[in-house]
Design goal:
This protein is mainly alpha-helical. The chain contains ten helices and two strands, in the order αααββααααααα.
Length: 243
């Protein structure tokens, strides 16, 4: 591994960035063992505490892991799709809390991406996913369900729709939208939407996918998103009137 000259800024930051670049470029591969702290300190001509700080930065990014024992050491991590999705979701949640995305932007992105998902799901319906969708539909029709419980079921329903597309890349991208953005938008529109309207479009989505009707699935999602976008606008108008 090539060692780049260090500058006057944070040495730990520079070292972590060099190691990160080596990992992302493939120079250091998944499960490769990194040199020991002493070896890295000697190569970079810095103290062990500086190396420890650099490694902590990489661990915080889930790029490396440590293992104790005779065969232990520090290794390049092999993150799972779920781990990467959780990291993306956490970042998306943070950005949403800081108002980096408008409701319109969230709704438009969700509409376009999820439309692709439901089309693919209808082309090859998965019986196990259909069962999950039906379970959530049964729950959503219960009048005893609280708003929080209904919103949670709504998220699970759309997560299952995304899983049904059987495309890992779309699943990865959509997890941030479903897990991070949908709860945010649900909180905004909860008092402006009618559950029966939402459940009705969910039922049509389910039926279209079950019948391998890709056009019908897209039309049902279009209907849902047009309805929700109108509810977002109603919520924003109400908020503006309160100020």
């Amino acid at each position: 591994m090539k060692i780049q000259p260090l500058m006057t800024q944070s040495l730990a930051k520079q070292i972590s960035e060099q190691l990160r670049e080596a990992i992302l470029s493939g120079e250091l591969k998944a499960d490769d063992r990194l040199p020991t702290e002493d070896e890295l300190a000697a190569r970079y001509q810095v103290s062990r505490p500086t190396i420890r700080e650099a490694l902590k930065r990489l661990a915080a990014q889930n790029l490396i892991r440590s293992r104790r024992g005779p065969t232990g050491g520090t290794f390049v991590n092999r993150p799972s799709l779920e781990d990467a999705s959780e990291s993306l979701t956490a970042s998306a949640t943070l950005l949403a809390s800081m108002d980096q995305f408008s409701l319109t932007e969230i709704a438009d992105a969700r509409h376009e991406l999820e439309k692709t998902c439901v089309r693919l799901a209808a082309q090859n319906p998965d019986k196990s996913v259909l069962k999950l969708l039906q379970q959530e539909l049964d729950q959503q029709q219960s009048e005893a369900l609280t708003d929080e419980e209904f919103c949670a079921s709504d998220v699970r329903f759309h997560r299952a729709l995304v899983d049904a597309c059987q495309n890992a890349m779309l699943q990865f991208l959509m997890y941030a939208v479903i897990e991070a953005m949908q709860p945010v938008t649900n909180m905004v529109v909860v008092r402006f939407r009618d559950r029966l309207d939402v459940v009705g479009t969910h039922q049509r989505l389910y039926q279209a996918i079950e019948q391998s009707d890709a056009e019908g699935a897209e039309a049902a999602l279009d209907e849902l998103m047009v309805y929700l976008k109108a509810r977002f606008q109603a919520a924003q108008d109400w908020k503006a009137g309160q100020s």
